[in-house]
Amino acid sequence: MTAENSTTATEAGWNFDNSYVQLPESLYARLNPVPVREPRLVVFNRLLAESLGLRPEALAGDEGAAIFAGNRIPAGAEPIAQAYAGHQFGSFTILGDGRAILLGEQITPGGERFDIQLKGSGRTPFSRRGDGRAALGPMLREYIISEAMHALGIPTTRSLAVVTTGEQVFRETPLPGAILTRVAASHIRVGTFEFLAAKGDLESIRALADYTISRHFPDLNGTENRFLALLYRVMERQAALVTKWLEVGFIHGVMNTDNMSLCGETIDYGPCAFLDTYDPATVFSSIDQSGRYAYGNQSQIVQWNLTRFAETLLPLLHEEQDQAIRLAQEAVSAFPEIFLRCRLAGIRAKLGLFTEESADLELIKELLNCMQQNHADYTNTFRDLAAETVAETALFRDAAFLKWQRRWQERLTRQPQSVEESRTLMRAQNPAVIPRNHRVEEALEAAVERGDFTVMAKLLEVLSQPYAERAEDDDYRSPPEPSARCYQTFCGT
Ligand code: AMP
Ligand code: MG
Fold first, then answer.
1. Which residues' Cβ are closer than 6 Å to ligand 1?
2. Which of 36, 57, 102, 191 is most exposed, with the fewest beta carbons within 10 Å of its own?
3. Domain ranges for the chain
4. How many CB atoms are closer than 10 A to CB 443?
5. What was the pLDDT predicted at 483?
6. How far is the CA of 126 from the centre of ligand 1 (A)?
């Protein structure tokens, strides 16, 4: 079977404009997704479809199944697999979309541009030894967590649809195959720059850097050293992003440079997971033996990744190499300060602080210490602090914590805002519900083992309003039973 062209593009609302294929040809390979046997649309994000200018009625049935499976190419799409490289756990490798096809860039009615990518769409020239396919469980997992991140207000790729393929994929066991339609502001990665830098292709790096500026940071056009400005902007976006991850207890799990998007969106949901009890050393990923990507290491790792990015830009920063190195070093070494600024602002808000005092950092550290000592639930502790009643947890009985709490309450009185205003701020900053690992597993099991998608639908509904404290969501706020606490995640391959 070969992919057919669709004649129904206008009815469905597709409006492609494919700027990436204007870039140097080494950055992509043109090919269609490999058609699948029996596509069936199992999850469809109607609200996202509408915001993209797509008409859900036209895509909810067979047409959507065929398109989101890659069996039918919507008019105007110019399918490609993107080339990139990356440092994986510190080692450099040439990679590329080994199981994904970018259909094209959808222009929304508001004029925004989004990549529409099929993940699990078959082999490409970059597949290496992989089968180009994806299993249903990991694709549903990406759908749930990316949509939860969006609802939490964290920049992220989105999930438009999941289709099952009617084919099996073979991992340790045979599993149902699936394809996820991912929507992203772009798929330009640190690894995309590294791919060109490894080839020593300076002209293409300049073209890609200019493309990145025009697509994501057009205000930098015309600045004195626009490439240095790009480096600083990417640093700021990453500082803001990782700050937000830390605030909600998110662990990405595989922060390789190929999984770091330059526009500052969370991308590539593999072994990611959320903290239950607070411990900065938490690692869920089965392959992260050394804890490189542990919760508390994420800000250092992002700086490491930014250093790799800065290296690719060196020839663009200054014509004299030692000057270029000086500018890059100066930039990257400013990262901890940029990060700390973001982190302090974020955590002050989590604690209901509107003003700044120099001892705030100490105050925050002490709370986190108490939480760690008492194995406190990360999410619920911050909600408990905003509550009017005293929580019945070990933490709230701990002497060191009670001492800390008095200090914090005094701190609250040293700002003009009322305690009620602080509580309102805290409730807006601290989610009541997050995608708890045991809840995500339960939804995946129902869908994958029993074909029951209602558990996932309910979970998605709860996660769509994470800051609302609805009595009916109470079950979704409970930490896992002790037996379910040894959670492990696996790369979604
Ligand atoms: P990831 O761990 O998903 O970020 O993927 C890392 C690299 O492995 C990327 O180049 C992917 O395209 C590639 N890859 C992952 N799974 C597969 C697969 N099943 N078949 C081919 N390539 C894959
Ligand atoms: Mg990846």
1. 95-99, 127, 130-133, 259, 268, 270, 491, 493
2. 57
3. 4-187, 191-343
4. 23
5. 66
6. 9
Average confidence score pLDDT of the chain:
96
Report CA(98)–ligand 2 centroid distance (Å): 9
Mean pLDDT computed over 304-330: 98
Residue 363 CB neighbour total at 10 angstroms: 17
> Tokens 């639908």 label which residue?
457
Task: State the Cα–Cα distance between residues 95 and 87, nearest whole angstrom.
Answer: 10
pTM: predicted TM-score of the whole model, two decimal places? 0.96
- Would you tell me the crossing angle of helices 321-333 and 298-317 to the nearest 10 degrees? 160
Which residue owns the Cα nearest ligand 1 atom 16? 493
Ligand nearest the Cα atom of residue 175: 1
Residues of the chain by 3-state class (helix, strand, coil), percent to 5: 50, 15, 35
Characterize 230-242 residue by residue with b for buried, 16 or more Cβ atoms within 10 angstroms of its Cβ, and e for exposed.
bbebbbbbbbbbb
- Scan for tokens 């099991």, then name that residue: 445
Q: Distance from the CA of 100 to the center of ligand 2, in angstroms? A: 10
Q: Which residue has the tokens 């050293």?
A: 225
The number of the ligand 1 atom at minimal distance from the alpha carbon of 493 is: 16
Over the stretch 221-243, which tens digit does the pLDDT of each residue have? Answer: 999 999 999 999 999 999 999 99
Q: Please answer whether residues 184 and 117 qualify as being in contact, where contact means their C-beta atoms are separated by less than 8 angstroms.
A: yes
pLDDT at site 467: 97
Distance CA 1, CA 188 (A): 31
Ligand nearest to the CA of 95: 1
The yes-or-no verdict on residue 10 having pLDDT over 80 is no
Mean pLDDT in residue range 335-364: 97
Mean pLDDT, residues 177-193 taken together:
98
pLDDT in tens, 88-117: 999 999 999 999 999 999 999 999 999 999
Beta bridge partners of 364: none
CA 248 – CA 235 distance, rounded (Å): 20
In the residue annotation, 268 being an active-site residue is answered as no
pLDDT for 1: 41
Q: Which residues contact 115 (CB under 8 A, 6 or more apart)?
A: 102, 104, 105, 106, 182, 183, 184, 185, 186, 187
**Angle, CA of 349, 352 and 358, to the nearest 5°:** 75
Q: For residue 457, what are its two tokens?
A: 């639908």
Active-site position among 97, 258, 288, 384: 258
Q: What is the pLDDT of residue 236?
A: 98
What one-letter code names the amino acid at 273?
A
